[in-house]
């Protein structure tokens, strides 16, 4: 691979925030490498923004190694792949749902960070942007394993930031509130009515709103490190309280 532009890797780029970020970073003149499992969706987004689609399962060591091998240089790693499954209370939660959330969000971020850190350092101006969540700042009823995973990412971002002090790599975490993507469809295991109910009466953020933030952070001068950014819809004030126009209830 030969290129002059800085290379940005975006995980979970087949939909939602990741797809919008791939488009925004391509528009900001990055050479974008898109990773996710649904390769056809990934390829169509890559074609649209002039990027490169490479199959990636962030829960699979061999997949991460094969992905990283195809990307010799990297200036920016956006650890975005993730999500939630289920809203059961702690007392009733499924161990396998919690394992999925921990493996995808936390260990996925760890695997990609370990695979790309040497390349980010070699670039002379590297950046890691982890996608956390308001769920990594506030626990909520039914948040369970997703809260645990996103609080875990918050801790990992902070450790990494400290460990890289003095090295040419910035570390940022962006914590969105409600964003209308496939997130809730996945969380409710494909039940679209339940997914739509999450956003009823509220104007949520769009994937493009978060992608704008990512592209803005990524294009600041090398001396500037945004450690953690919370991005909420105007209609949302906390993990549980959003203004619902139809019911006037949070
Ligand atoms: P989407 O469900 O639209 O996107 C999730 C992305 O993650 C998909 O591209 C999916 O791709 C990818 N992904 C899931 N599992 C894996 C895996 N094992 N390996 C590689 N890629 C994987 O949701 P969002 O865009 O909303 O989510 C993006 C991130 O933003 C997540 O980390 C989420 O937790 C976070 N977030 C979302 C919020 C929201 O309200 N939407 C709010 C706060 C944070 P594929 O299935 O093709 O592998
Ligand atoms: C997604 C936002 O509030 O559903 O990270 O946990 S929330």
Automatic annotation (TrEMBL):
InterPro entries: NAD(P)-bd_dom_sf (IPR036291), Sc_DH/Rdtase_CS (IPR020904), SDR_fam (IPR002347). The keyword Oxidoreductase applies. Transmembrane segments: none annotated. GO terms for molecular function: oxidoreductase activity, acting on the CH-OH group of donors, NAD or NADP as acceptor. Keywords: Oxidoreductase. It holds the Pfam family adh_short. It comes from the Bacteria. PANTHER family: ALCOHOL DEHYDROGENASE (PTHR42901). Belongs to the short-chain dehydrogenases/reductases (SDR) family. This is NADP-dependent 3-hydroxy acid dehydrogenase YdfG.
């Amino acid at each position: 691979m030969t290129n002059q532009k800085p290379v940005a890797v975006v995980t979970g780029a087949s939909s939602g925030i990741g797809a919008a970020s791939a488009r925004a970073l391509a528009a900001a003149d990055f050479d974008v490498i898109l990773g996710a499992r649904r390769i056809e969706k990934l390829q169509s987004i890559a074609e649209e923004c002039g990027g490169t689609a490479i199959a990636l399962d962030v829960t699979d060591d061999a997949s991460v190694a094969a992905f990283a091998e195809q990307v010799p240089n990297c200036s920016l790693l956006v650890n975005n792949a993730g999500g939630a499954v289920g809203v059961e209370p702690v007392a009733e939660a499924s161990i396998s749902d919690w394992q999925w959330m921990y493996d995808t969000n936390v260990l996925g971020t760890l695997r990609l960070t370990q695979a790309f850190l040497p390349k980010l350092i070699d670039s002379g101006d590297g950046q890691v942007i982890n996608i956390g969540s308001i769920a990594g700042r506030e626990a909520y009823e039914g948040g369970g394993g997703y809260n645990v995973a996103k609080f875990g990412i918050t801790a990992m971002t902070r450790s990494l930031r400290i460990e890289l002090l003095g090295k040419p790599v910035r570390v940022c975490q962006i914590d969105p509130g409600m964003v209308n993507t496939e997130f809730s469809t996945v969380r409710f295991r494909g039940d679209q009515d339940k997914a739509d109910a999450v956003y009823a009466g509220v104007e949520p953020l769009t994937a493009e709103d978060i992608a704008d933030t990512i592209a803005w952070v990524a294009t600041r001068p090398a001396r500037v490190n945004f450690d953690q950014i919370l991005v909420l819809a105007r209609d949302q004030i906390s993990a549980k309280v959003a203004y619902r126009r139809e019911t006037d209830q949070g």
